[in-house]
Amino acid sequence: MKRYFKQQKFGVSTTREFISSMEKSTNRDLLPFFEDHRVFLSDQELLKKSTKKKAVS
Asked: Which of 10, 11, 21, 55 could form a disulfide with 4, with the two C-beta atoms 3.0–4.6 Å apart?
């Protein structure tokens, strides 16, 4: 977590980037953990796409 915070401090990151960073530091697949805690990458990605469409319109 400290490494992730140092890398992303005052920046913008995504849930996918956070999970990826945690997986690298633990050498584990953490997707099931996040899904169990109702953190779904697809929700964020869908939100991102709909925001881009609104900006273009």
From this structure: 21
Q: Which amino acid, one-letter code, is at 46? A: L
pLDDT value, residue 28: 94
DSSP string, 1-57: -HHHHHHHTTS---HHHHHHHHHHHHTS--HHHHHHTT--HHHHHHHHHHHHHHHH-
Which pLDDT band holds residue 8 (cuts at 50, 70, 90)?
Answer: confident
The pLDDT tens digits for 9-46 are 888 878 888 888 889 989 999 888 988 888 877 656 65
Are 19 and 41 a contacting pair, CB within 8 Å?
A: yes
